């Protein structure tokens, strides 16, 4: 293969990296990227329209928790719930009744066999069994038909009892219809929480008419039996199942495929006790605004005053964020296959252009091919998801491989990264990914691969064997070792703290800064605010030797973070855009300021203690 002609102008004098190649196919490939970006832009516009229509959420209060709190303070549960309704609560989560609830409400009498035998002295009563008797006519007699558990009717103490071979206290019996009607009449949106029990003959047959269902535990009812799961799927009807954040439930994907899903944010009660109401309110606001949570599941604090503070602050923040508290209408995100297919061209053209722009073209093509294969394999040969990952690892590197001679090249690199955003969104945003069911595969690669690709493009235009020999024979100073260790440590920290679930902690001070930022505006990512200034300083050429190249690699992290930001498809596109442009603006200003500070510092270093005549010389 012949080397491409017309190399770019040499880089700044202080730089030690070779200039990239300018391949004859560059204009054609850039043109393909631009043309393919048009359908990607249309898809992005459609996604924004969908997300704007979905900018609603419901504040759902856990009803049993309200009852417990009300009884502790001697208040009527309905009165306390009405108070919370005035502070913003518009939904109530009610659980399916169990037989024990019927006994508590005085509808039936539940006794252990030992107690009943002690009272009646009847030898026919087994101490190991349990016995039910109706206080409300027909209640106890109607229950056996609901279950597969064998029962019989016995006489004891002049009364008719239903004998159960096992404790029936926690067997589900369907909804409390009176409570359902009362809460509906008070204007609450209801969320139903059914229990799973293998003894129930027809689960889901008597669910109330409510818009949402939240399943308990780690699986939905029927998850272990395909035939039963199919029945539950049918019996859901118009009800929408909830997806609880960070709580995967087996079988839920089957129901969501038919009915869609309502993303739900709930805080573990033990964790809630460690958070003050203002901090928790911030998390609810963040969940609705930036993670598309349609149901905010609220449990009261131990005191009414704390709960009041939580609700007031939450509704205030939601109002500032433009999120309307109402009954959400769940509309599935629809993909456009034709436009997505046309968008495939852009990432492929960008990957080819990246490989052809390496000073060592063969190495570049090999690196590009390996990156493409890795992206496809990681996404189980799904062409759209694979191309989305290709875009996420290619575009952050492409700009700094094509041009890296001056500060203005940072704008070229940023423009290409933002173009890559369109392809990531167009190819990766699906019905499942916007619900958080299908996470972006290869998040770690979006930070690592662009860095490796740009670093590989720094290899000089010569035989690789000679480069390896030169590196091996190069004298290494203690300062070089310290710089390399520091750079590796910084990158390790950045890599560990990628995504939402990180392997490195956040300090209390940083957590406070994050909360203050997210309560007032969309918080920019710290990787971008640090990475962009590093890239600008590196491109300025003010630092000698390999320092500039090292800082350019820091700038790659900032560019990669742009694509990484948009790979969270459950986050609205406009929110990601706000976060991105805030980071770009802050990073640009900081970078330009730091360039001047570095120049001033270097000038002081070289002139300190010298006479003016020596400095001029």
Automatic annotation (TrEMBL):
Pfam families: DUF5693. The chain crosses the membrane at residues 25-45, 348-378, 384-403, 410-428, 440-458, 478-496, 534-558, 579-598. Residues 1-12 have a biased composition (Pro residues). Keywords: Membrane, Transmembrane, Transmembrane helix. This is Uncharacterized protein. Residues 1-20 are annotated as: Disordered. It comes from the Bacteria. InterPro entries: DUF5693.
